Amino acid sequence: MAADRRPTPHEPPQSPALALEDVTVWEWDARLRARQPILTGVDWSVDAGEQWAVLGPNGAGKSTLVDIAAGMRHPSRGGVRILGETVGRVDLRTLRERIGHVDVKTEGAFSTRRTALEVTLTGATGTIQLLPERIGPGDRERAAELLEGLGCGAVAQHAFATCSQGERRRVLLARALMRRPPLLLLDEPADGLDLPGREALLAALASLAGEHHAPAVVTVTHHLEELPVTTTHALLLAGGRVVAAGPAADVLADRPLSACFGAAIVVRRSCDGRWTGRAAPGWGR
């Protein structure tokens, strides 16, 4: 029987949790037979406990930015520090064990026989396959607590593939939180969810902010309506460049968003703290 490996919280990272300095990423365009910039001169810093939103039009470089932040790829130029470690001087496999990453593309990677609880438990080992020999009672207890806290306790024994889309996203969030990561990256977590599913996910994300040693959170999205009320900061990308970055109240506003999307954007924030945005009549994308 595997030893009880109850996870203990990582020590809070020295601020910042994530720091990019003059980061540029090029990719080869076979059609043009030339390098094309995906990101250009990105400077960005995320402190411990902050909740960042990353927004921008299609092709802005948002997913590439998340890949850099997750230690999944190196920049072509510039410096990256993640949780105090310098990319290029650290074993990225070890570093990635301290990063929670929710990517909806992984939904189809799990065996259809796996239950929601088993999918969550794979987060204890950072693998897609369930490795029972490396999972102890402490892991099982934490997985059950996470699913219950995220409103998925009732589906813990259900096949993951039969869960609703909203339930699957929250199970993936539970999976990402298994090892209490100090940095949590969410790449369009609400994409494709219906209204109840989206609201349940946002409530789960908002609950993270109140936890002891809350992780730094980065959420990539296309829509202001998909941001939790606990969002503290925002980064706007367009054409691979930073348009604006800073406190959410300053960045999630008419002028910065209009400059980012190249359209007249009107932003409203309701009394409960939620944002909405719309393009002025006559604008279509």
Essential attributes:
disordered N terminus, globular, about 280 residues, alpha/beta, four-stranded antiparallel sheet, six-stranded mixed sheet, 12 strands, single chain
Strand order of the largest sheet: 6-7-8-3-9-10
**Rg estimate, integer Å:** 19 Å
Q: How are helices and strands ordered from N to C?
A: EEEHEEHEHHHEHEEEHHEE
Uncertain segments: 1-10
Shape: globular
What is the residue-mean pLDDT, rounded to a whole number?
89
Give a count of the beta strands, DSSP E runs of length 2 or more.
12
What share of the residues lie within helices?
A: 10-25%
Report the portion of residues in β strands.
25-35%
**SSE-based structural type:** alpha/beta
Task: Characterise the protein shown here.
The chain has helices at 62-69, 92-96, 116-121, 137-149, 165-177, 195-208, 248-251, 254-261; strands at 18-29, 34-46, 51-55, 77-82, 85-86, 99-103, 183-187, 216-220, 233-238, 241-247, 265-269, 275-279. 41% of the residues are buried. The chain has a domain at 105-178. The longest helix is centred in the last third of the chain and has 14 residues, at 195-208. It is α/β, with parallel strands linked by helices and 285 residues long.
